[in-house]
Write a structure and sequence with these properties.
This protein has about 160 residues and is α/β, with parallel strands linked by helices. It is about 30% helix and about 15% strand. The strands form two sheets. Strands 5-2-1-6 form a four-stranded parallel beta sheet, with helices on one face. Strands 3-4 form a two-stranded antiparallel sheet.
Length: about 160
């Protein structure tokens, strides 16, 4: 009896297309992280990149639940004295909507070197168009994963 360990060269990477229209950011990010890591495959191996590529379109149409639109902030440091930058999620969605989803997925990945390579397989676009038609991107069915039934404007 022996355990199967996947080797980096023997796995075929697939490309998945996700339409983020009306999806809740956190629930969508959790599913995307699972696919990037490769936990959806039977040949998942923790120390090998077994995940697939994910292309997300319409990132500007994601939804946040509760009062996160007013209370959630993103902060980073420039490295200079007094260089703390703070942006609210409403401002980030207006200027860079793809960064909101990318940051949510990044925070759900393991904190190691392999996760940084896996995160490079995530392609996020604000609008409906993407430049990955040559890879035969297949739509990924995420029905029931964070779909909001009623969108309340300004909530």
């Amino acid at each position: 009896m022996s355990s199967y360990m996947a080797k980096p060269g023997e796995l075929e990477k697939k490309w998945h297309l996700v339409d983020a229209t009306g999806m809740v950011v956190g629930r969508l990010a959790a599913e995307i992280a699972r696919i990037l890591i490769g936990k959806h495959r039977p040949e998942y191996t923790p120390h090998v990149d077994t995940g697939d590529f994910v292309v997300v379109v319409n990132a500007e149409k994601v939804v946040l639940t509760g009062k996160k639109m007013d209370t959630k902030i993103y902060q980073w440091f420039t490295g200079y004295p007094g260089g703390r930058k703070i942006r609210g999620v409403r401002e980030m969605l207006a200027k860079h909507p793809e960064r909101v989803l990318r940051e949510a997925v990044r925070r759900m990945m393991p904190k190691n070197k392999l996760a940084r390579h896996q995160l490079a397989k995530l392609k996020v676009y604000a609008g409906p168009n993407h430049p990955h038609q040559a890879q035969q991107v297949k739509p990924l069915d995420l029905t029931g994963v964070g779909k909001v039934k009623k969108i309340i404007p300004g909530a």
